[in-house]
Amino acid sequence: MKTTMSIALVLWLAGFASAAEPGRSHTMTPEMSTQHNTMSVMNKQWAVCKKSLEAGDFATAGASLERMQKAVKDMEKFKLHKNSEMMENFKEQADNFRGNLSELGKAIKEKDRARTQGLSATIEKSCVQCHSVFR
Ligand code: HEC
């Protein structure tokens, strides 16, 4: 009886700890933790890609972009926890985003600096736009 009670207490405390995670008002589900990882990769690689483009380092920019293109595939499976009824809109934005990444890939291969700068700005806007509705 005593053991059962302490197990229950530990479970209760564990639930409490995960609910109290900073910036989150609810417990993270496994899907959300994967989405979090996907977007962390996106964020990190985009920072490197953008910086490399500014420096004219197309090789590094291209490598980061490829990692973003892998991550973007996981976005199709996102379970939205904000405006989840707008899944069509989300898919549309994700498609546009993927399209722009692919255009950027071409511009990088062609070492077309002006075009990479333009696409970089477009991509940056699409991060903000999608987050304003779904993040
Ligand atoms: C098509 C929509 C969409 C686009 C485009 C998008 N994101 Fe996100 N992003 C999301 C959603 C949805 C979340 C919330 C994911 C979650 O918490 O499950 C998110 C979360 C994030 C987070 C927080 C991760 C976390 O959980 O701590 C970062 C950082 C981020 N995105 C960076 C970026 C960057 C950088 C770009 C552009 C290069 C970008 N995102 C483009 C939809 C998008």
Task: Give a short summary of the structure.
This protein has helices at 2-19, 30-55, 58-74, 87-109, 113-134. The chain has 135 residues and is mainly alpha-helical.
CATH superfamily: Cytochrome c/b562
Rg over CA atoms, rounded to whole Å, is: 20 Å
Identify the quaternary structure here.
single chain
Shape: globular
Strand content: under 5%
How many domain regions?
A: 1
Mean pLDDT: 87
The first-level CATH class is given as Mainly Alpha
Order of helices and strands: HHHHH
DSSP helical segment count: 5
Tell me the distance between the termini: 45 Å
How does this model look, in words?
This protein is mainly α and 135 residues long. It has one domain: Cytochrome c/b562 (Four Helix Bundle (Hemerythrin (Met), subunit A), Up-down Bundle). Helices cover 79% and strands 0% of the residues. It is built from 5 helices and no strands. The N and C termini lie far apart (45 Å). The protein binds heme C.
Topology record:
Layout: H1 2-19, H2 30-55, H3 58-74, H4 87-109, H5 113-134
Helix pairs in contact: 2-3, 3-4, 4-5
The structure holds heme C.
Structural key phrases:
single chain, 135 residues, mainly alpha, 0% strand, globular, binds heme C
